[in-house]
Structure formats: C-alpha cells, structure tokens
Amino acid sequence: MTPSTITGQRTDDAATELLAADPAATQQRGRRARPRPLRRLGTIALFLAPALVLFLLLVITPIVVAGYASMYKWNGFGLPENFVGIDNFTRAFEDPTFLGDLWRAFVLIGLSLLIQLPVSLGLAMLLNQKLKGRGIYRVIFFAPYVLSEVTTAVLFTLVFSPNRGLGDTLSKWLGADAGAIFADPDTVLFALFLVISWKYFGFHMILYLAGRQNIPQELTEAATTDGASAWQVFRHVTLPLLGPTIRISVFLSVIGSIQLFDMVWVLTGGGPIHSSETMAVTMFDRGFRRFEVGYASAISIIMFMLSFVFALFYQRFVLRRDTEGAITNRGVQR
To answer: Model's pTM, two decimal places?
Structure first.
C-alpha cells in the first residue's frame, strides 16, 4: 500500500466519522442527492395547469354540455326540460339528410385518398428534383393553403358566378357551362372536392416533400448503382420510408373530411337539395336556423364519436409502429 493510498483511506475514514457524528449533515447530503418528489410534482403541475384549464374549458366542457343537451328536445332558450333520452340519436340515423351526410363524407374521404393525396405525392417527388425555379413552384403550389376556407369559398363563388365569373365565361367560349356545376345535384359534390383539393393539396405536398428530404440520399444512390430503375427506387426505397408521413397525411385528410363545414357553408350552403351538405352543415342548420339545439347536439356528438373512434383505432393499429419507434429512439438518446 502506497503512502497516497493510506492518506486517501484516512481521509475517507475521517469524513465517515464526521458524518456519523453529525446526523444533520447526513440528512442534508441525502436531500441533495435525491430531489424531492413533491417539489417535482409541484413543478410539473404548475407548468401543466394553464394547458389543463384551457383543455377543460374549451374541449371537455363543450363535449359534456353537448352530451347533456342531446338528451333533451330543446330550442336553446332557457333550461332543457323535455327529456327524450336517445331519441335525438335515433332520429339522426333515421333522417335521410343525415344519412346522406354520412355517405357524402365517405365519398369525400375516398376521393381524397385516391386522387388528392397521390397527386400531392407526385408533385412532391417532382419538386424534389433539381428543377430551375423549383422554389417558386413550391411557393405557388403551397399558396392556396395560406388562404382561409372562407376566402377560398368566396373566391370560387366569384370565379364560377353565372354570366359574370371568369371561369364561367371561359367555359362558355369552349362550349361548356362551368357556372352550373355548383347548381347541379349530380356535379356539385365533385366540384366541391375540386375546390377542397385546390385548397389542401399544397399542404400535403409540403408534408411529403419534407419527408422525402429526410430520406438519406445514399440509399437511393445505392439502389441506382445496383441497377434499380427510377420506379423501383421509388417503389422499394422512397415509398416505404415515406410511410410515417403518408399515414399522418391520411389521418388529417379523413378527420378534415368528417368535420368539413365553413367552405361548404359559404360556397353552396349545402345545396342544391342537400346535395353538398355535410354533417357539420346539418348540425349548424338544425341548431342555429331551426333552433333544434337538442338534435344538433346529438349530431355533434356523433361527429365527435366518429372522429374519436377513428383516431383511436388508427393510432392503435396504423400509427403504433411509428409511435413505438419514436419512443424507442427517444429512450436511446437519453
């Protein structure tokens, strides 16, 4: 044993004797070593309190109030008194207008998944190439998303205004009548989908473009070197790695189709003959124009449950791999 070892051992022994003789010092040292759980919980609660208060006031409270009002036949004035139980929900699923709303929501979801998102993906892949002025093209394609839904609806109302709009005038020069597409029950839903696509395809394009730029270039270069064609590189390398982005895009598209309101209300008002009406438009019409607040509340609860159940199952069965990967990566980084 060297002299330095002996000196170090004596120092440790002296420190141990000192701590044993002074219990207060030992307790203080333990407090410094272990943070107080109550203090940590208090800090967490302090930072979470504003968000929790807003969540309770703006999310939970309206849901509870709507659920309560849906059990009454109520016109919105005074307190609900005429209790009807689930009659409002039964009425909704027997109402041809509401059943049509459900069908139109599924049609818009299908059109979005089959047309809007693939077009957005194709544009994202195109604008990821080295093109002259691609930054300008990205801004042009993304610009419609900056506009609000109401502004977009007013814009297309003016463009396709019969006998006055630019789109209607140009179509008549070509022998068509574009101004009537929003007045025809057979074409209004597809015309509405075109407006929605024009508004939102730039948003999905930016999502796909960001996801594509996060894919390492070495992977595509290695596949090309091995003799893969451009389609094979996209099919077997780019598309699988874009999976998380595509799944998020699909989720947002479905939820947006279920909750679609303001653009429809301004552009068509749900007409003609309920041909473009959505669940949210029916809810607003019944609640604020016909004063059937109980029935409108039941529709709102159905919309909430559709969105909630879809989000729950989508996260459980579709997004599970993505969320588990994110949690695993966070744990590895820690």
So the answer is: 0.81
- Closest residue by Cα to residue 251 from 179, 330, 166, 318: 318
Q: 């709102």: which residue's tokens?
A: 300
Angle, CA 323 vertex, CA 322 and CA 327 arms, to 5° = 120
* DSSP code of residue 147: S
* DSSP-derived secondary structure letter, 128: T
- Pick the closest to residue 289 from 75, 70, 84, 90 (CA basis): 75
**C-alpha torsion 173→178→183→186, nearest 10:** 120
The encoded tokens of residue 290 equal: 């016909």
269-307 residue pLDDT tens: 988 888 999 999 999 999 999 999 999 999 999 999 999
Residue 179 CA to residue 159 CA, distance in Å, equals 8
Q: Show the tokens assigned to 140.
A: 């042009």
DSSP string covering 77-109, please? SS----B-TTHHHHHHTT-HHHHHHHHHHHHHH
d(CA 161, CA 59): 39
Local structure of residue 234 (DSSP, 8 states): I
Report pLDDT digits (tens) over 85-130. 999 999 999 999 999 999 999 999 999 999 999 999 999 999 988 8
Please, which residues bridge with residue 62 across strands?
none
Residue 15 burial (CB count, 10 A) = 10
Cα–Cα distance measured from residue 46 to residue 180, given in angstroms and rounded to the nearest whole number: 57
Instruction: Give the dihedral sign, CA 124/323/105/292.
Output: negative
Distance CA 88, CA 94 (A): 10
| Number of Cβ within a 10 Å radius of residue 17 | 10
Find residue 101's DSSP bridge partners.
Answer: none
What one-character-per-residue DSSP string does 7-69 give? HHHHHHHHHHHHHHH-HHHHHHHHHHHS--HHHHHHHHHHHHHHHHHHHIIIIIHHHHHHHHH
